[in-house]
């Protein structure tokens, strides 16, 4: 099976022309996308991305790292289009995924500018879009997932690349406890995950970074995440256990940044 996910901006351009009258926000996103220079280049400061499922501590850690490095914190989708996220989340999968793909390229413009000024910390980026699209758009058979060497796991050549990608993980019990403590409600995607164990397995295997609540059959999570970050390459995702205290996690993260990012 050859899988081609809607990871690049041309997918959004094509779809926006088809749905502009019905979704006026599509034209606004397209306008922003067309203003983005091609082949963005980052500045001299490091760009560090944090990935992970909901309730793994991304918000806490990214803010702490931003403060520790006196950096700039960005997120995907970027603030300039995040207000339309709910609009596109209710659309068919191709339109929804194209929106997130376009968001990566719009975000790249912000990263290019910010990285000339200070270290850039990012809450989710291309890996999230790729993993979710792979999990949702392949067939129902696990063996039909693209093999580990497939090009869909390669970072797009025309998208600004980060210096380091850190995948925050916690054990299933701790994550369930955090979700319950925060009182999060299920999204439509979470309900689908809970109802479809096969889909859930594929989603975690491919490094899904969107919110999900997995209350049963969650034992495969650790193995799935381990396999998933090995599939994403150039750059790979380096796993960080986010179960310890905030102080310990921050110490580990800063050590990794110091090791891999020279500035």
From TrEMBL:
Enzyme superclass (EC): transferase
Gene Ontology CC entries for this record: mitochondrion
One Gene Ontology biological process: dTDP biosynthetic process
Catalytic reaction(s) noted: dCMP + ATP = dCDP + ADP; CMP + ATP = CDP + ADP
Molecular-function GO term, any one: ATP binding
Localization in the cell: Mitochondrion
A Pfam family hit: Thymidylate_kin
Residue stretches making up the Thymidylate kinase-like domain: 50-201
Family: Belongs to the thymidylate kinase family.
PANTHER family listed in its UniProt record: THYMIDYLATE KINASE (PTHR10344), UMP-CMP KINASE 2, MITOCHONDRIAL (PTHR10344:SF4)
Name this polypeptide is given: UMP-CMP kinase 2, mitochondrial
Source species of the chain: Lonchura striata
């Amino acid at each position: 099976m050859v899988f081609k996910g809607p990871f690049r901006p041309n997918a959004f351009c094509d779809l926006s022309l088809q749905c502009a009258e019905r979704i006026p926000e599509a034209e606004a996103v397209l306008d922003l996308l067309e203003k983005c220079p091609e082949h963005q280049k980052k500045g001299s400061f490091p760009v560090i991305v944090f990935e992970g499922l909901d309730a793994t501590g991304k918000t806490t850690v990214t803010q702490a790292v931003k403060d520790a490095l006196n950096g700039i914190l960005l997120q995907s989708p970027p603030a300039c289009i995040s207000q339309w996220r709910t609009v596109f989340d209710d659309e068919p999968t191709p339109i929804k995924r194209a929106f997130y793909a376009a968001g990566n390229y719009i975000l790249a413009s912000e990263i290019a500018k910010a990285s000339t000024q200070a270290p850039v910390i990012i809450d989710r980026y291309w890996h999230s879009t790729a993993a979710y699209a792979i999990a949702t758009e392949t067939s129902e058979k696990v063996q039909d997932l693209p093999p580990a060497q497939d090009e869909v796991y390669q970072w797009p050549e025309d998208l600004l690349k980060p210096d380091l990608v850190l995948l925050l993980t916690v054990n299933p019990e701790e994550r369930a406890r955090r979700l319950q403590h925060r009182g999060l409600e299920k999204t439509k995607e979470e309900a689908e995950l809970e109802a479809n164990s096969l889909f859930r397995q594929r989603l975690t295997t491919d490094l899904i970074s969107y919110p999900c609540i997995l209350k049963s059959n969650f034992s495969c999570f650790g193995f799935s995440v381990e396999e998933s970050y090995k599939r994403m390459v150039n750059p790979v995702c380096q796993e960080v256990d986010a179960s310890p205290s905030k102080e310990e996690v921050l110490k580990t993260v800063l050590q990794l940044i110091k090791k891999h990012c020279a500035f």
